[in-house]
Predict the 3D structure of the following.
Amino acid sequence: MKQCVEVRSSQRLISFLQETLGESYSGKALRRVLESNGCRVNGQVERFASTRVERGDLVELVSGWQTLCAPQRLSWELLYEDEETKWVNKPAGWVCGEKECREQFGEDFWLIHRLDRETTGVLGIAKGKKALAKWFRLFAEREIHKSYLAIVDGKPAKKGGEIRTFLQRKGFFAGQTIWGSGESGLEAITGWELVQLGHDSSLVRCKPITGRTHQLRVHLAEMGHPIVIDRQYAKKFVTRRSARRPLLHAEAIKTPSFSVQAPLPADLTLL
């Protein structure tokens, strides 16, 4: 497919892609491209196959889209396991969904918590619903303590602090809900500390007290130092550093009986 192709007639995006690219690429493969932010319509990322494109629209696929068509072969590092749970090092690109969990780990395995698709690090899997209920209770009672590492844009003026806001839905971007602080919503509390300063970006450690959707991404962006490169919550970045994903890593989880830590991925090395 050329860098930019003009639409000749109104139709669904997936139909246009199949018509343009030919039978070599299945609908399932092309949906993987869309879900990986690999397609733009008139310069805007479009993730939904059912979106209608109109005559005159310009459709383009990102460089390397053919690789996105191939089924992902994800590598799972086991960090800790006991009779009730399995704790793994989640790779970037894996969707935390119940269907995906069962396909990957087995029929009676359940997500204890979730990480965003591109976030790496410690992920807990429960062996059965009885174990799942126990861990849900521990999270609700704040007996579980998590820490994250992130490369953020710029240089924070402070060495750390605590952010307390109420998060509510603000809109949508690339098919996903955008969250932000407001007067109502769910209370969100994040502690953070500066770990290392770089030339135009910094490494910070975040310790969420609550577990709201996109909490760390919102709090860091509203602090003026969005995660590199989280275009869902920032349009411009000071840093010249490039990244294939928002640079956020679930570093560790501490439970009443054990602790689990995931090694730092290569793309989160600051220097």
About this structure: The CA atoms of residues 148 and 166 lie 20 Å apart.
